[in-house]
Hints:
Blueprint: E1 11-14, E2 17-20, H1 25-35, H2 42-53, H3 57-64, H4 68-83, H5 103-114, H6 127-135, H7 142-151, H8 162-174, H9 185-192, H10 195-202
Antiparallel strand pairs: 1-2
Helix pairs in contact: 1-2, 1-6
Amino acid sequence: xxxxxxxxxxxxxxxxxxxxxxxxxxxxxxxxxxxxxxxxxxxxxxxxxxxxxxxxxxxxxxxxxxxxxxxxxxxxxxxxxxxxxxxxxxxxxxxxxxxxxxxxxxxxxxxxxxxxxxxxxxxxxxxxxxxxxxxxxxxxxxxxxxxxxxxxxxxxxxxxxxxxxxxxxxxxxxxxxxxxxxxxxxxxxxxxxxxxxxxxxxx
Length: 203
């Protein structure tokens, strides 16, 4: 849970033991990429998760000796309590925002609004802080303009708006998102982690 009157919790309790975590936004995004990779099986995805988010080798070795059920429960808690950013709205209509495909616009928006260089913040900026900053981006950035283009309805044709319609259709084609590849149920769950961010993008 994100609370401004309490420090961010950076450990995971597993079998009565506190496992330190490193939850920088770049590491979390790489973990989510791993879970969306059809070329990795579940055990490999769990290994990537622990390798990236659990910085101390002795704790990774200890986790590796836990049962499959304990490891699975740890992964579930990790995503639910630390990576999931909050309640999600139903995913309706076409996507308007994608963290990977819109990375350059996201980078520019953070520089413009917060003065934050995301490259310099790799390994430092906590995922939960990153998520809060992303959800709080105002209008007036190129990213918000592109989201507006993607979500704006094309007006019905009349004798006055042919130029406007053509310009919007061309802009939508230029900024369209590449279609998502089919994913398995676990990847669907991970995609839902970004529901709050997508809800912001569509607002």
